[in-house]
């Protein structure tokens, strides 16, 4: 009840005739002036305690490259972080489940990251900072890799603060369109993600510090995964 109205998720009841699995009856929750057909169902999630360092995926994905470059700049960051540089992927390999393509890749020149490259960094006891987009999250989970997904919520609808920090994203229309699309994708992920609220940072250094703190806290936390989606 303390959540924002837009983030409340409800479960819809199933007719008795459709209850073939499990004997526990499902409960129908409603809000005033909310019709039953508009309810959003809960998903069943399971806790996974990951012992190895988890790779990191950022949202909005347009910020990934800039964030990775800055997080790797201080010499001491090499102790905690590393990255897999995207490499050209041949057409014959593009359907390989152990290769994850970048969202911005074109059919003529696809770029991607290999599972082995990610595993090599994990074996070094480091977080692998990835340029991959949200569609790669489920593919990674299917390979037994549990990424940390960090969503940076813009300070305002125009995303001026993010465009100022990352000049490559100055196109207001593109930034707004990508942010809106990825916010919808976040709600469909089979993995719990972490959101950095606008109040947690006001400059680049504070944002990077907040990201480092979030990565370390998420590493210690349980990963909640919707395992049914991965079967």
From TrEMBL:
Q: Which GO terms describe its molecular function?
A: CARD domain binding
Q: InterPro entries under this entry?
A: Guanylate_kin-like_dom, P-loop_NTPase
Q: Which GO terms describe its cellular component?
A: cytoplasm
Guanylate kinase-like domain residues: 8-216
Name of the protein in question: Guanylate kinase-like domain-containing protein
Which species is the source of this protein? Myripristis murdjan (pinecone soldierfish)
């Amino acid at each position: 009840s303390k959540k924002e109205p837009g983030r409340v998720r409800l479960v819809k009841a199933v007719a008795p005739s459709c209850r073939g699995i499990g004997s526990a009856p499902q409960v129908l929750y409603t809000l005033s002036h909310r019709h039953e057909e508009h309810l959003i169902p809960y998903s069943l999630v399971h806790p996974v305690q990951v012992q190895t360092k988890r790779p990191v995926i950022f949202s909005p994905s347009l910020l990934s490259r800039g964030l990775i470059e800055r997080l790797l700049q201080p010499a001491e960051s090499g102790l905690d972080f590393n990255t897999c540089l995207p490499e050209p992927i041949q057409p014959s390999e593009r359907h390989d489940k152990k290769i994850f393509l970048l969202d911005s890749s074109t059919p003529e020149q696809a770029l991607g990251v290999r599972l082995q490259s990610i595993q090599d960094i994990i074996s070094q006891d480091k977080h692998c900072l990835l340029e991959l987009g949200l569609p790669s999250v489920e593919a990674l989970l299917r390979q037994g890799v549990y990424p940390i997904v960090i969503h940076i919520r813009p300070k305002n609808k125009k995303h001026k603060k993010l465009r100022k920090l990352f000049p490559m994203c100055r196109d207001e229309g593109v930034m707004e369109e990508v942010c809106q699309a990825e916010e919808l994708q976040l709600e469909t992920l089979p993995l719990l993600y972490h959101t950095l609220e606008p109040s947690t940072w006001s400059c680049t250094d504070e944002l990077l510090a907040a990201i480092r703190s979030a990565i370390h806290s998420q590493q210690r936390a349980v990963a909640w995964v919707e395992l049914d989606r991965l079967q």
